[in-house]
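Researcher: For the annotation table, I need structure tokens for Signal recognition particle receptor FtsY. Please keep the output clean. Sequence:
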Amino acid sequence: FQRLQERLGKTRDSFVYQLDRLFLGKKEIDQELFEQLEELLITSDLGVGTTLDLLDIARKKVKREQLRDPQSLKSIIRDQILTYIEASEQPAELVMPEEGPFVIMVVGVNGVGKTTTIGKLAAKFIRSGQSVLLVAADTFRAAAINQLKIWGDRVGAEVTARSPGADPSSVVFDGLEYGVARAFDVIIIDTAGRLHTSVNLMAELKKIRRVIDKKMPGAPHEVMLVLDATTGQNGVSQAKLFHEAVGISGLALTKLDGTAKGGIIANVCREMKIPVRFIGIGEQMNDLRDFNAREFVDALFF
Ligand code: GDP
């Protein structure tokens, strides 16, 4: 918990510190406080929609319960942020199938930390005694294939890959065949993320999804979108784009250690209703944490 708190330092320093300062200077809840709050919440990347919704809920509650103490408003804000983060309908933990390999398709824009997250995720499974196969279906960039191999070596996961330029769907097809034949527990598929040709990219991802489902009905069991917390509101539009194309079932939010924009998590959750599975709080192998909404909000606010 302490480590999480430490790593969320930037968001704490900007958002929560400023929040505290705002409240400390106040004896009563007044209109000015709401206005200052609005500005602070929007600049912390909570997003305009979520900010207005949050303040509307807070105003009503303050009025209904005739609250005056600014600290009670602060609690309302904290509780409501937690409600947003918990809003997804699915459980936050990954549910593994009873039989056969657990197939995870990982999507996301280049640079968000997709390969790193896959490596960390593989390490997590391996630590818990499961065998992991990584499938290098981002055949667009030679560097992506190499990066995945480096992570595979580092964490002890096997990697199936072909040369750059190979057809991604057939890499996936072969990967699944190999993974099933060798009875891997977990198969993680890395995909391309070149957003400058987003139409082609989405078509490619849809095709990969179809191939997986055809080869192994019911799979992928998880389509995980990796989002970079430092991109702020851009992350929400990315999420929508990928969700429309392939249907996202879980999120990994990276680089929370490097940003003051941790508020984005509440906005993404409220807008998408998709559970955050993991958060990235550093570049090392162990810097991927299972996401727990309450722990996260506590780490931010206390
Ligand atoms: P990809 O293009 O999406 O596969 O991105 P990479 O996995 O290559 O990551 C891009 C950069 O982000 C690398 O320098 C990673 O070390 C870094 N990175 C990934 N996750 C995190 C994180 O949680 N925290 C920090 N600080 N850096 C991260």
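Researcher: And a one-line annotation?
Model: The radius of gyration is 21 Å.
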